[in-house]
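For the sake of clarity, the format in which proteins appear in this thesis is described at this point. Each number in the token line that follows is a code from a learned vocabulary of backbone shapes. One such record is shown here in full, so that the layout can be seen directly:
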Amino acid sequence: MVTKQPSEAAIAEGLEAEEGTDIGINSAWDVENLEEFKEDDTTAAGHIWLQQQRQTLQYLRLIEHEMPKLVAFRKEFKPPTSETPLVARSIWYAGENHPATHKRTIVVPVSTLPLKDRHAVHNFRLLAGVRWTPFPPKDSGLRQRENSEDGYFKISCEDFKRPSMNLKWASDVLDKLIDEANRAGKSFKDIPYDRRHLDAKAMKAKKGKLLRDVAGGTGRYLSPPSIKDFPKSWLPKPSRLTPKTLLNPIPAPPQPVQ
């Protein structure tokens, strides 16, 4: 006769004699078979509290024994020089996977860029468009009025999967803008800079010289428009603006007879 050996689970629970019967292993956990509580253990909430205490003690041991070893990797802070004017910004969610972690942003004061003259600075502002602002962006890490003579330039990229590729793309675009602004033979000094994005931002924040109408219409200026607001090329020549011409306008030339 072959004797069936009890399983390891039954031996571990001390139920090798009951294995194979209708009662089974789970019968030891029935309410009728439970032993009387002898007040020698805590509740489930107590075990959770003890686990939290063990975790806290583990971190305290790390602070006490492992943190002093980080002194070997300490480096002295050196402020950025004129050779490294770029400020690269990234976002990190403590290891959590998020699409914004691939994004890289570059902010740089225009006065620190290798632009050869004032015409090149004006060309760069025209090429930058809405990416140029007269004040540093709030999330750039730059202080107010820090190299603010020519404003600030900001560009970002999040199209590629790797952060280094996004940073490389933004850096390459900045280099191309500098080369195009410094190109000889091109001057756009007659073209004014478009500040509509700055006015729209000020109007949206209800700051600056632009405010909203009471009826909720478009923005209006605090002061009424005057002749100073018109382009000079639209105005007549100053030599023609005399009291005599204002009282007696110059008559129109006679039309030729058909």
User: Anything to note?
Assistant: The mean pLDDT is 79.
